[in-house]
Prior knowledge:
Shape: globular
Order of helices and strands: EHEHHEHEHEEEEHH
Distance between the termini: 39 Å
Mean pLDDT: 93
Amino acid sequence: MTYRKLVGFTGSFNRPSRTRALVELVANLAIGHYSLAASIYDITNLGSSLGNARRFADLDPKAQAILREIMEADVLVVGTPTYKGSYTGLFKHAIDLIDPSALLGKPVILTATGGGDRHALIVEHQLRPLFSFFQAHALPTAVYAAERDFADYRLTAEPIRQRAQQAVAELALFLGAASAPTAIAAE
């Protein structure tokens, strides 16, 4: 049996990381609902060749393989920590090395983390336009979580978990599921 592929990608340098925990949560929900195969990568997985790369061919084979997985995925879950109101610089640099047509029509769940509520619009003002440039289909529901929504790098805020479930439910239109999983309405 061939499984469709979900790739998660974070702009975080740290492990453990709240951003990775959020991407893993969303990915695991999607895997459970749609029987997807999955891989999750951090910016550090791309290695040292990323910083000097001016184009895809400048990356080492491992970094090229990861970006190819991103381009060939059926679903993307991307996440970044908020850095000065935007995504991290190397996250953007990695995305810039992807061929502009490679993400055409691909469903993308946008996630981000930050210190507090004032960073919440990163998904709308930074990530959504970035993936719109690639003509990817950024799903309507994005997931932002603040530092207070985690304990020991685990998401503890039920409203954020419900928002993640809603984003995953929106994948049904792209994955040919007979019906979308039921998302719990936020209170």
